[in-house]
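Input sequence (138 aa), recorded before submission:
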Amino acid sequence: MTQHMVLLVAMSIACGGKSPPAPEPEAAAAVAPAEPDAHKPEAEMTELTGTAMNAKMGAVLVNKAGDHWIDLDAWPDEVLNKTVKVTGTWVTRGDVPVVAEYVPGQPVSAGVPVPAGADIEAASKRQVLANVQWELVP
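Predicted structure, token format:
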């Protein structure tokens, strides 16, 4: 009995006397692709400033507000990883490769997994800044 008490006390001290926190309910939702932002109305001229970066699906502008897709296959070398000001209009594209959740025993598909029963067409949408012009920010 004394050995069990010593073990329990030692485990409590090792764990800081606390249970691990329960996972946040929002954590599971972060896996699914985000829906297009409501604050990016289509056809409205927009100006953004951030760092020019490339991703598998094309050019991205990264700033404090987040990552913004730019309608380019890639940034030219002279602006890559530099601060740029970009002007363009938002358009919605349905080109995100999404797949239903993996089912054991089935072939694995490439793409962004979404929960079974999710609207694949809606999950494939993203907003892209199109008809862009950019300039380096000194």
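Checked by second reader. DSSP finds three helices and seven strands in the chain.
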